[in-house]
Records
---
Amino acid sequence: MCLAIPMQVLEVNGLNARCEAKGIERTVSLFLLQHETVRPGDMLMIHVGYAIQKISLEEARSAWELYDEMLAAADAPAREADRA
């Protein structure tokens, strides 16, 4: 399964941006958004190193809430095995 990850733009340098999510920084390509204005503070959906969409802060929060729930559900069997 492939997921896009919400990240916040820290710095823009031409068609690249330095972005951050949950303490992790990555340089991503803005090539697919080259006809949009991207500024520090903007939220982007990142997929395999490419920004694919600008999103609102609320959309980013909602996506992270869902991803956190998915991760917690995936970890539940391991936690149960540790208790046994």
---
Amino acid sequence: MSDRKWQHKVVTVKVGAFKSQEKNDALIQERLNRLAVEGWELVTVAHPYGGHPRLYLRK
């Protein structure tokens, strides 16, 4: 067994309600790319009704 300990991070991406879906997608993609450069790996995404997407990451 490995003794590796994970670090976890939750990020809320505040997308614009009046932006196009393409612009919101680009915003989320840009944020994910920056986090990946820092070594974070996306685990899952939650998008509550009426809320902003929440990204759950680990490294």
---
Amino acid sequence: MASYARGWERFQGAGLQVVGISVDSPEQNRAMIEKLLLPFPLLADPESRVIREWGVLNEAEGNIAKPAIFLVRPDRSIALSYVGGDFEDRPEDDVVFAAVG
């Protein structure tokens, strides 16, 4: 998330809005925003409704979200879809920013 914060202008320039979603509480998300100085919101989904709907719920690891990133263009088409297999499986920054354009 910190690298996405550093690349904030690139997302904005492409007309993309960055939003994080986690099973964590609003308080935990607020603390993460403050710790990492994130310029984008982290939304709380403690009941995993959105996380389940997007197919990234990891039931095998205690109903947490798999690391995932979806870049959705203003026309609602998907520029990038990446779902990691475990907590450490995340796309390289170059992959994400190449999809931003």
